[in-house]
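Researcher: Last one for today. Full complex below.
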Amino acid sequence: MTSQEVLMDPETTDDKSRVRLWLRLLRASRAIEGELRERLRTTFNVTLPRFDVMAALYREPDGMLMSQLSKYLMVSNGNVTGLIDRLTTDGLVQRTLRDGDRRTSVVLLTEAGRENFEIMAASHRAWVNELLSHFTTKESEVLAETLKVFASDWEGEAR
Amino acid sequence: MTSQEVLMDPETTDDKSRVRLWLRLLRASRAIEGELRERLRTTFNVTLPRFDVMAALYREPDGMLMSQLSKYLMVSNGNVTGLIDRLTTDGLVQRTLRDGDRRTSVVLLTEAGRENFEIMAASHRAWVNELLSHFTTKESEVLAETLKVFASDWEGEAR
DNA sequence: TTAAATTATTTCAAACATAAAATATCTAAG
DNA sequence: CTTAGATATTTTATGTTTGAAATAATTTAA
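Model: Here's the assembly. Have a good evening.
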């Protein structure tokens, strides 16, 4: 027994299994993400980041601040600026200045953006269902509950 | 009961739970990935993609082909080219032409690259352990087994 | 009130990433 | 042997992403 081991909690001594779990988690999400990216591109000619932004905005009909989008999507502020710029150019999203705070701009989907997203969302939902078909509804619920801890651990923090 | 539902297997009818699972999976891996990215940057001044490449090469002392790296990391060929270019410039990686096939180049870590990686890997392992500390060793093993299906579903396919 | 600190967003440079096209090499059919 | 097709990699154009710095507006405190 090494000097390291005696200092460790037996439950946390063997860190190999957690590293393996992390690698599996990462590979699973990359595989699914890659497949969804590919299907969104070939079917709707849309990139995954753009779809993600539209999905976030669709859930909030009153719009979101740039900083809320950044936090929700877990990407940097500058990234959101560029994405919204391009989506605005394409008429899918608009910035409005209805606040008393002139630093902020409320971003929301245009009517074209909503229609566009609804069509894509139906396919997206079906694809996710297909790609996760290894899991029954019950298993999905259990697993989702297991993973709940993470989002909440960091969510709310700026990055 | 709608016309849709009668056509579906009862086990797969309710797709909401799978979509929720996907979103949780994605948020969990993004949160962990973001935290690791930040720590690698501030502690070792290295980017996550560079760490990932070095980790892949460390496992293969005899080196890997560009296409193997691309497949293993699930990123495009062009992306690997750029990463290896930059790592080569910094003396952490080298291309060798020891094959009878002049199209291919075998990439491997330099001695400096191996030393550099070993130092980072120790911290990385500890960080993963910390970030996944919600899971006991047993839970990690069970969960990793559950996620095993995915990687193998797509792995081996070119992207 | 005014200056300092804070907050929200954008800009910038560099790196990362994709997909398609180009290049170079190898393999195999004839 | 020649060449058509396949394979491995790089190049190119475009888009995504980060982190730091700059800008602009608001809030706080002296």
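The first strand of chain B starts at residue 64 and ends at 65. Chain B is about 65% helix and 5% strand.
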